[in-house]
Amino acid sequence: MNLHVIALFKFNENYLMDAVELFQNLVKETRKEEGCLQYDLVEDKDNKGTFFMVELWESVDHHNRHNGQDHLLDFRKDASKIMESSVEVYKGFKIY
Questions:
Q1: pLDDT by residue (tens digit) across 44-70?
Q2: Alpha-carbon distance 68 to 56, whole Å?
Q3: pLDDT at residue 48 in the model
Q4: For the chain, what is the domain count?
Q5: pLDDT value at position 32?
Q6: Is the whole-model pTM more than 0.90?
Q7: Which residues does UniProt call coiled coil (predicted)?
Q8: Ranges in the chain, pLDDT < 70
Q9: The dihedral formed by the CA atoms of 43, 39, 72 and 95, expressed in degrees to the nearest 10
Q10: Which domain holds residue 44?
Q11: How far apart are the C-alpha atoms of 26 and 14, rounded to whole Å?
Q12: Which of 12, 62, 83, 95 has the CA that lies 20 to 30 A from 77?
């Protein structure tokens, strides 16, 4: 069963260019992973510095493997220094 994930990120406005650079590498590398069906970065139209990662994984196992990938671990380490708050992550299965 496919796993849908939405991750919400809030970055300090002074570091938006840095955040976008970090996201670019993360998206590029994650899209190469086995089981990654969708991995898109969306910027909130009304809240500068707020981003959503819209993810679709073949399975929970594929997503779990993603969580241990070096490119994600590096992103978390670097992004945590310039974020306003902790990441909010929502995971679920499509109903309709």
A1: 999 999 999 999 999 999 999 999 999
A2: 17
A3: 92
A4: 1
A5: 98
A6: yes
A7: none
A8: none
A9: 100
A10: 3-93
A11: 20
A12: 62
What string of H, E and C letters represents the secondary structure of 66-91? HCCCHHHHHHHHHHCCCECCCCEEEE
Cβ atoms of residues 4 and 95 within 8 Å: no
Nearest to 51 by CA among 80, 81, 23: 23
**Chain centroid offset of residue 37 CA:** 13
Could you tell me if 88 and 8 are in contact, meaning their C-beta atoms sit under 8 angstroms apart?
yes
Report CA Rg, the chain: 13
Helix axes 16-30, 70-79, angle to 10 degrees: 170
Q: Which amino acid is at 89?
A: V
Is 9 within 8 Å of 73 (Cβ atoms)?
Answer: no
Beta bridge partners of 9: 51
- CA atoms of 16 and 22, how far apart (whole Å): 10
The domain spanning residue 77 has which CATH number?
3.30.70.100
